[in-house]
Amino acid sequence: MASVEYPEEVRQLVAEFKRLPGIGARSAERIVVSLLQNPKASPLDLARALESCQAAVKNCRRCGFFAGESGCAVCDDRGRDGKILCVVEQPTDVLPIERAGVFRGMYHCLGGRLSPLDNVRPEDLRIGGLVRRVSEEGVDEIIIATASDVEGEATANYLVEVLGTFECRVTRLAQGLPAGGGLEFADELTLTRAFEGRRGL
Q1: Are 96 and 145 contained in the same domain?
Q2: Cβ-proximal residues to 151 (8 Å cutoff; 6+ apart), any chain
């Protein structure tokens, strides 16, 4: 005898939630059931917000951070020091640095990191845009803030090589960041010490 299952529409929605990072089958099922049964939940509002977000939010063409219809919060901030550029792997890496309040320069998000095993090569990252910014915007210092794991170090070393022709200081975040750790796991004090103790490359 066949077992009873959710309707196909529910199963499809569960499958979509399962595709999100950190959400397994049980969690996806609970989210969908909650959306359908909780009187305070508003699935239509959620759908509209998702549609609006997908249509309006893009990566900033200049720095790679998230930009909405109102523009990029980083590039549009005139109070920032355009002479210092912090290079991070992902747009989400900007947020812990900003929350720590230790940096008031500009950012450049690579959109990933070099990883031969995952077939991610230099041309797959926003390295060309970084070189263009350094040559056109008169940058004095580039702070490389990639993760301290193998891929992050390989990316940092490649950037040092590429940026070696420019007359600007290239530094790397220092003490406090755990080996193999990314910025998303670092607390404010750790990030403050990492920025203060950055070293030349």
Answers
A1: yes
A2: 113, 114, 115
Verify that 171 and 76 share a domain, yes or no.
yes
pLDDT digits (tens, 9 = 90+) for 1-57: 567 889 999 999 999 999 999 999 999 999 999 999 988 888 899 999 999 999 999
Six-digit token string for 66: 């998230």
- Contact predicate 76/95, CB 8 Å: no
pLDDT for 66-90, tens place per residue? 999 999 999 999 999 999 999 999 9
Two structure tokens written together for 186: 């670092």
Task: For residues 42 and 97, state if they share a domain.
Answer: no
Residues making up the chain, counted from first to last: 201
The type of residue at 30 is R
Strands across the sheet containing 58-59: 58-59, 66-68, 71-72
- The angle formed by the CA atoms of residues 27, 33 and 34, to the nearest 5 degrees, is 85
- The contacts of residue 158 (CB under 8 Å, 6+ apart) are 114, 122, 127
Domain harbouring 34, CATH code: 1.10.8.420
